[in-house]
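hiii, so i know i said id send this last week but things got crazy w the move. better late than never?? heres the sequnce for the chain we talked about at the cafe, plus the structure i predicted for it. fair warning i was half asleep when i ran it
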Amino acid sequence: MALGAQLSVTDLRAAARHPVNYPVVAEHRTLGDMQMRIANISAHGFMIDDAADLARGDRVIVRFPVIGRIEAYVIWTKDHRAGFQFERIIRQDNYLAMINELQPNPRLRQAR
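okay and structure toks below
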C-alpha cells in the first residue's frame, strides 16, 4: 500500500481558475528575464498565452502582489499557451488577497 498523497497534475486541473490579464517579468535560468502575460491563475499555478521558447519542465521565478516571489515550472505547453505549477500551494487568505489585487473588476471575479 502506498503512503502519502498520491496527487497528479490532472488533479490540480480541477482547481478554480480566475481570469486575469496581468503582465509579469519572469526570471528564467537560461533565457534571463522574460515578459509574460498571465491569463488565469489558481492557488496551484497559472496559465500564460504568450509562451514562446518555453518547454515542459522549465522553471521560472515570478513576483505577485501579496505573496511576493515564487518559483513555478511548466507542466504543459500547447500552441502559444503554457501552464505552470507553483512550487507550493498558496494559502487561501493570501490567494484571495492576491486575486483582489490582480483582478480588481468585481464583475470578472467568481462568486465566493
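btw The CA atoms of residues 38 and 48 lie 5 Å apart. thought thatd interest u
miss u guys!!
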